[in-house]
């Protein structure tokens, strides 16, 4: 058995040692990408220079490196560029333009099908339908790429990065804009999305479902039509992300639906219609986040149980917390800072001596009757809130922070 392993290693090493470079340009011996692909052997490198007009996509069926030297591929509004049907493929330093839209195919700048160990580095995808479309593939790296879609409405746009039934994907340092969903994941596990910017997308900055054991770290999601949606998943880590300026009647900084055993930590929710929306979520640790200048900082609906909400900052939101569910007592608010808290601290331990009830009467009214929001900051709002604080009847009495902080939490 050991001898077989050594022989396989030597064969692979020999293949890479014999790999060659094929240069493609107007003055080169090889002037077309088609001819370069015909001549290529496994592990060869194809170097592209100049502008190439495409009538159809190129298919990669063996391990190859495709590297641009100020190269531009133009789909002329009628085709994608690359279809990968092989393992160990690198595409780097290319500009891919004008796929055009299609209602009958998943047209993408780069399609990845049932392939493993794929790297897409420093690629610009401009005026694209799908940027990258990957399915049933593993070990994909997309780093330092720029995605700019062509859609103006949800019906003529596709997703910037679309992952379906994938595993072990790393999306790092990318910018995605003007797509339907900036980043879309479905049935994609054990993946990391880090330090990306997803902005000005028609629907969601990021949208994923049925994807477990994933982490989302230090990303920025802003000016998206509906914010970010995370649904039907467990063991999710969302840390140090920024969700900002996502506006609209159905827009949320972060929408969580049926998420379990996950952590939402040290994120920044700024100036959203609703910062965090939770539905049927359980066993979440929501710790060390900042909710600032949102319409609703946090909305909890429908059987969200056993969630820990602790050491968060709630700063100058129109409404801090709102819920119509009867089970709010199963969600523990503890040691949060509330800018609306007016209690006192006699022993100087930075914990208020009077519990804080973050849901106000007017928040309940607005949740029941949306049109009543026009009375925000009116005398009637003040009267309702004062009356409810004296004789609480409507708002959930168990929705309470028994140890509110007197000073904001300082995060790293």
TrEMBL record:
Domain Periplasmic copper-binding protein NosD beta helix, first and last residues per copy: 157-343
Transmembrane region(s): none
Record's keyword annotation contains Acetylation: no
Keyword terms of this UniProt record: Signal
Signal peptide interval: 1-19
InterPro entries hit by this protein: NosD_copper_fam (IPR026464), NosD_dom (IPR007742), Para_beta_helix_rpt-2 (IPR022441), PbH1 (IPR006626), Pectin_lyas_fold (IPR012334), Pectin_lyase_fold/virulence (IPR011050)
Keyword field contains Mitochondrion: no
Protein name: Nitrous oxidase accessory protein
Organism: Thermoflavifilum aggregans
